[in-house]
Every structure is written in C-alpha cells, then in structure tokens.
Amino acid sequence: MTRAERELVTALRDELAAIDPARPCDRVAEAAGLGPGTVEREASVARLAVRLRRGGEGSGSGAGFAWPSAADHCRVAWLRGRFLARGSLSLAGGRTHLEFVVAPDAAPVLAAELAEFGLTASWRLRRGRGVVTSKSGEAVGTFLRRIGATGALLEIEARQVSRALRGELNRVLNAESANLQRAVSAAGRQLDAIAALEADGRLATQPRSVRLVADARRATPEASLADLAERLGAHRSAVQRALERLERLASGPEPAPGRNARPGGSCSGRPSRRASHSVGPALA
Fold first, then answer.
1. How far is CA 148 from the centre of its chain?
2. Contact at 8 Å (CB) between 242 and 215?
3. Do the Cβ atoms of 194 and 243 come closer than 8 Å?
4. Which of 40, 77, 203, 255 could form a disulfide with 197 if both were Cys (CB 3.0 to 4.6 A apart)?
C-alpha cells in the first residue's frame, strides 16, 4: 500500500477503537472480541483494551459472550473487537483485502460467523495459523460500516472512486491520443501522395470527385474524414475511398481499367453512374 492508504487504514482503526459502547453487554462482547492479554497493536487499540478492563468487563477471555445466542448489537461489538485485535485491511492497487489471523480451529468458526453477519469469507491454514479472508470491496465496506467505521471509510471510498475515474480518464486519453496519432500519420501519407501525383501530372487526370478530396485535404491537413466529408457535402466512405485511391496511385502505376470501367469513374473503380449515388453534391 502507499503511505496515504496506510494512513487511511490507521485512521479507520483509530475510529473504531474510539467507539465507547453504551450497553454493558456490548462492552463485554467487545472485550471478548479483543481477546486475552495486552493488545500490542496501535496505541488506540491498546487504550481501548485498558479502558474496557477498567470498566470491569473482564479480561477478554470470552466469558459472557456466546455468538449463537448473542443479540445483533453484541455481535457487532464482538466483531469490532475481533477486527481490531486480529484483523487487517489492505487497499493496495485500489483493491480491498480484509484478513483475520486466528487460531487454526477458530478459522472455520469465524468464517461461518462472518457469513451469518453478511460477509462472505474463506479460510485456510497458513504457517500453522488460521487465516480468514474476504476480497469483495463492497461487502468489506458494508461490514466495516456496520461495526462503526463511517468517516474514514467514506474517505477510503472517495479515494477509490477518484482512482477509478483517473484510470478511466487515462484510458480515454490514451485511446484518443492513439487515434490522433493514426489520423496524423494517415494525413501525412495522403499529403505526400497528393504532392507526388501533382508533380507527375497524374492528379489532373483523376476524376473531379478525387481532385476535390485532394484539394480539401491540402487545405485542411488536420481535418478528420468526417470533417472532410462535411466540408465537401459528401459521404465519409466516399472521401475515404478517394484518399485510398490517391495513396494507391502514388505507390505505383494505376492499374489498367477493367472491362466495365470507364474513364473518370468513381474512386472505387465502379462506373461513374453508380458512384454518383454514393457521394454528396460537392463530389458529384
């Protein structure tokens, strides 16, 4: 994770640790979730453990809390303590990864409890410890919100949305840049072809429609095919065929007319009568 992402996760954990349950049963449940002994994590979590012990909620051994019979608000408190004591959150690369590291026999139990709470999670054994994970960003966000994270979670979500928007914008800009580069390259080839055909006199022998397209391309080198078509009052496909014809002629001698071809035909080599239906008034 980046430093900013780590700071956001720390702020989220600090926000959860600052919650002071009002119900005695919730305080007992949260102390049970934290577990026995000193919680050697963030200072805010350590202070929470001390605060709960001073309030007489026990040593966090789990006495006084049973998941099957616990009320929903007690389950929320217990899961908040379990997350603060055994959970971690990663936001690397815009992806959300929630993980709990617990005793091997506790992993399947915790996964089932999380599923009952609405968070689908998987579990496995890793180096002798039970690991419970969930990688669904939406589900993890809902879970964290339910156990009390609001402000920091909103900031995390806002940054994730911003990251997604920047990524989409970059993709759009890259695509537009690639299209522009292709258009510039094509225009350069077309201008070279027009200059070569004009130099050897072959441009003057081309149909009027082709010469009009050549003149429009020279007048507006930066124009797209759609712009040229609008300028000439023609179909885009007719302009594209004319430009392709110019490039083809410049690359070698013009092929001999076919049996049905007539001088001054369309850009595609079809009879001019049919071509007149595929071009606009300016190219007719």
1. 28
2. no
3. no
4. 203
The CATH number of 3-149 is: 3.10.28.10
Whether 32 and 64 have beta carbons less than 8 Å apart is answered as: yes
CA distance 11 to 3: 12
Residue ranges of domains in the chain: 3-149, 169-254
Tell me the pLDDT tens digit for each residue of 122-149. Answer: 999 999 999 999 998 889 989 999 999 9
Q: Is the pTM of this model over 0.70?
A: no
User: What value does the CA radius of gyration of the chain take, rounded to a whole number of Å?
Assistant: 36
